[in-house]
Amino acid sequence: MRAELDGGPVTADALLGIVWQVWTAYLGGTPPAEPLPAAAYVEPFDVTAAVSIAGAWNGHVVLRCRVDGAAAIAAAMLEMPTGSVRLEDIVDGAGELMNIIAGNVKSLLPQPSVVALPQVVLGEADVVWPGSTAACELRTGFAEWAVLLSVMQVEAGGTP
User: Fold this and answer.
1) Segment holding 17, helix H or strand E
2) Cβ-proximal residues to 136 (8 Å cutoff; 6+ apart), any chain
3) CB within 8 Å of 43: residues ≥ 6 apart
4) 17: which residues sit within 8 A by CB, 6+ positions away?
5) 34, 48, 103, 129: which has the fewest Cβ within 10 Å?
6) CA distance 137 to 96
7) pTM summary value
């Protein structure tokens, strides 16, 4: 597990703690103890799930992974075999996982702030957040699948 871009109110250590709690409570496992190979994070991801946060702090919490990893996450959340997971389950699972993670991130931020509904994009899309910069990034995984979790802060004058 590797964290980068440690800045602002959300630190890499805090993000790692959130991931450990969420993986344990909702996915029935833990993030990998050893970092996955750097190449696991280079290939294009085909699932992007994000939740925006607005208020005293503005930004986005973003999760990226491969569809097979998202299927494994959905299967764990829904307690079903991975082979039985449908695309709707992947979208629902990714959105719910981001609700949980973003709610935990929000608790670390200046208040008041509110969490928006999750957005999930399937396919190799170049999803961008104009006016935002990465404040914190965590390279982790679920089972053998790479998961990239980012906290993007909206620059002054931007809108979430």
Assistant:
1) helix 12-27
2) 3, 4, 5, 6, 7, 8, 10, 11, 12, 15, 150, 151
3) 66
4) none
5) 34
6) 20
7) 0.87
